Amino acid sequence: MTETTTIRFLGGAEEVGRSCFLVEGTKKTLLDCGVKLAEEEEEFPLIEMAEARKIDSIILSHAHLDHSGFLPYLYREGCRAKCFTTKPTRDLIQVLLADYARLNEGSAYKEKDILKLLKSTTLMEYGKAKEGVVMHNAGHIIGSAITELQTDGHKILYTGDLNLRPTRLLEGARKGYEADTLIIESTYGSKKDKHPSLKDVSNRLVSMAKETFANGGKVLIPTFAIGRGQEILFMLENYMRSGALEETPIYLDGMVNKVLRIYRHNALYLKKEIQYRILSSDDDPFKSEHYFVPKTKDRSDVFEQERAIILATSGMLNGGPVLTYVKKLGPHKENTLILVGFQAKGTRGRELEEGAEELTIDGQIVPINLGVERANISGHSDHVDLVDFARNVKGLKNILVVHGEPEKSRELADALQKIHKKARAHVPKLGEEIELR
After folding, report:
1. What is the mean pLDDT of the segment spanning 210-230?
2. Which letter, b or e, does each residue of 181-213 get, where b requires 16 or more Cβ atoms within 10 Å of its Cβ?
3. Of 6, 45, 37, 40, which Cα lies nearest the Cα of 23?
4. How far apart are CA 79 and CA 99, in angstroms?
5. Cα–Cα distance list, 54 to 26, 114, 324 (Å)
6. Distinct helix (H) and strand (E) counts, the chain
7. What are the Cα distances from residue 155, in Å, to 6, 31, 208, 217, 422?
8. What DSSP line would sit under 107-145, residue for residue?
9. Rounded distance, CA 404 to CA 14, Å?
10. Of 19, 419, 10, 407, which is closest to residue 427 (Cα–Cα)?
11. What is the DSSP letter of 345?
């Protein structure tokens, strides 16, 4: 007999950020628990702490803060649930959450709460079941997972953040699942969202770098600590190695360098050719003569360089060292800032994307005269790939579209309804509870 099972959308519904979905039947399972990073004020999932203490298990799809950032708070408040995740994700949250707590002095949790979370983790290998949970490569960042959850006669497939296309470091996610309920992300769910090929976007980025150097400027790439930063480093290093881009110091500022080491330690989760380069030759792609870390607090050693490429966190310019570079480089038109990932509403990155002529940073108005360009090196699938993934899921009764701005989520839901005519395709609202068929 199939028990009544519901899903409550405590975050990540009609928004990008604070993904958090509570599956309730005979047991309570939480899918992710992140924070919504914004320039003004961060937002947290709508979860009551009395309820958090009753959660039986947590599934963490990957390490990014919009999926993991609120978890230590649950453990601070007495949650004792097992947290199912992969080894790379466990290693990444160890540094990412500690950095978040350090930078946010008013953070809801401390290091001891992060340790409680880490002690509660149950490590998963792709394709191997534990207690009704199976994880598969999601292709988004190292260790990211699509999750199959068997509960009370229901089979739920949760994509987390999904990328079907292979990158320089990772294989793309596979297609061909079976489930009665699909919870699918929609970051790029609009038909207008079409990602260029990796080759085209790589050539564009290198072309912009060359043009900037010819004008006597520097290139600033705001990047997420995990995922895009490592992909861009490999891309630039390969172009310099081949001679297609002149040798230039690449400065890593923020957590990018620390995360690079975690990637190397978890090489088994990377593409076979990357593993081979690390283990079977002197050609270790994680160790390059072109990579540098700033030596001075004011970054004067970086600014003194004739030319440089700077990768600095954070990717949406919410905070972090990237803001130091924007203040210094922003007023000068010979420099170029390249946005490489999704820019959420309410962030400085979105302001720049929409043509802002000035930004307010630390109470100071910074004129934006440098060139602002786009080179979309995304870790997310676009509309065509999201539809293709969902088309290849058999047996669907419920399609729940999350992790997207409202219009993008609705557009994807409409497309999926036309394909799965017998299923219910729905865009949940924040706080909504849905009973599964």
Report:
1. 93
2. bbbbbbbbbbeebebeeeeebbebbbebbbebb
3. 6
4. 22
5. 12, 19, 43
6. 14, 23
7. 12, 14, 47, 54, 17
8. -S--HHHHHHHHHTEEEE-TT--BTTEEEEE-SSSTT-E
9. 6
10. 407
11. T
CA of 403: how far to CAs of 175, 302, 426, in Å? Answer: 20, 37, 13
Average pLDDT, the chain: 94
- 170 contacts: CB under 8 Å, gap ≥ 6: 137, 139, 141, 142, 163, 269, 270, 271
Alpha-carbon gap, residue 132 to 437, rounded angstroms = 19
- pLDDT bucket at 151, cuts 50 / 70 / 90: very high
CA–CA distance, 385 with 387 (Å, rounded to integer):
5
Task: Kindly state the average pLDDT of the residues 291-315.
Answer: 95
Quick one: tokens of 407? 């219009």
| Distance in angstroms (rounded) separating the CA atoms of residues 67 and 96 | 12
Q: How far is CA 420 from the centre of its chain?
A: 28
All domains of the chain in start order, with CATH:
6-192+379-435 (3.60.15.10), 198-374 (3.40.50.10890)
362-381 per-residue burial string, b: 16 or more CB within 10 A, e: under 16: eeeebebebbbbebbbbbbb
DSSP state of 6: E
Cα 149 to Cα 436: distance, rounded to the nearest angstrom: 14
How many CA atoms within 13 Å lie on the side-chain side of 147?
30
How far apart are the C-alpha atoms of 220 and 230, rounded to whole Å?
A: 15
> What pLDDT digit, counting tens, does each position of 304-343 carry?
999 999 999 989 998 889 999 999 999 999 999 999 988 9
Tell me how long the chain is.
437
First to last CA, the chain: 13
Tokens coding 204? 């564009």
What residue has token string 């990412």? Answer: 96
**Higher confidence at residue 254 or residue 10?**
10
Q: Return the biggest CA–CA distance within the chain.
A: 70
